[in-house]
Amino acid sequence: MLKKASRLLLQVTAALFLTSVAWVLAYRWVPPPATWLMLERRAHPPVGKGYYGIQEDSRHIRYQFRTLDEVAPAVPLALVAAEDQRFLLHRGFDFDAMAKAAKRNWNGDGTHIVGGSTISQQVAKNVFLWHGRSYVRKAAEAYFTVLIEFMWNKRRIMEMYLNVAEMGDCTFGVEAASQRYFGKSASSVTPAEAALLAGVLPNPLRFRASNPGPVARAKQRRVLRNMRRLGGTTYVNTLLKN
Question: Which domain of life does the protein's organism represent (predicted)?
Fold first, then answer.
């Protein structure tokens, strides 16, 4: 009986592993039709204090997949400058950033939790996993982060991130966000606009890219400084050749 149970557990584990590998491998070339968070937002509006632009009636999802070649070079540069400046250096995990975030959270009052996730970790979470906080989900996030770093290149990881990141209620990716907030394609956004879009992450429901407040403007200025510090188009060319 124990031997049968062990064999069944091994078969289930192998099936789950092969399925996850096939899933990640497929998305190396195929855009995801939707994510779990998109489906959740489609079903009902988010609930929270200080949220802007919530669509109470129509829950239509704005999502248009674009390749890196179809967006302005300032877009991936701004996202790296805002979220993960060591993106091209690490292999999915920035342990220095995680340690600093843990220290700040430990010394803080608990009202503002600082994250240390890389862009790779955020892609693993946004593309393959459900929304929420639990040790099981964090373990799954780490597992998928390892898979995408092994099976994709940095270009594809960035491509996924700029398409599936939530940038407002029912708005996912820079193309949909650019159309909604600026009335133009992501291929035409300026560095200042790209910095504004990146600056509202990771709280796109609280900070507005359209009619931004003083906090969003301050984030925009910080992102623009980091964009210059990274080397501007030189950095983007490195990413595009990756």
Answer: Bacteria
